[in-house]
């Protein structure tokens, strides 16, 4: 069986480089999803109800985001990573060895949201150079959402 060539106006080398960058974004997003879900399960204290619900909203959004990012990687002709081992190698977001107190959870999630923003933003030069508007649009949407979420979480710490 032969593979149908991809002819979307982006050279293969650029497509694969963009997919590699998106794989880092996918790993960061999935790791943040896992961390947020972990915090949802284990948050305690006086803000339990509001944080439990907020974290649920956030991890549900992240679950949808990983699918969008992975499907963009596939659209570019690359395989999307999907193992914990691959994600651990690609992400910049650290794991927790145990569930921290609620306030530290919030601070950790702010840092995670901002890390995703930095990863997304780092891809723009390559994406713009390849005239990959679809990926640029995805990155812009992700940045807007993560910056807003970081602001909302940061506001809880003031």
Attribute tags:
158 residues, mainly alpha, Ferritin, 6 helices, Dps family protein, DPS_DNA-bd_CS, Ferritin-like
What would you note in describing this structure?
The longest helix is centred in the N-terminal third of the chain and has 31 residues. Helix 1 runs antiparallel to helix 2. The chain is elongated and about 55 Å long. The chain has one domain: Ferritin, core subunit, four-helix bundle (Ferritin, Up-down Bundle). It starts with 11 loop residues before the first helix and ends with a helix. By secondary structure, it is mainly α.
Tally of DSSP helical segments: 6
Q: Which structural class is indicated by helix and strand composition?
A: mainly alpha
Number of strands: 0
Strand/helix succession: HHHHHH
Give the helix proportion (percent range). Answer: over 70%
What radius of gyration results from the CA coordinates? 17 Å
Question: What is the CATH-assigned architecture?
Answer: Up-down Bundle
**What is the fourth-level CATH superfamily?**
Ferritin, core subunit, four-helix bundle
* Mean pLDDT across all amino acids: 96
Strand percentage lies at under 5%
Main beta sheet: none
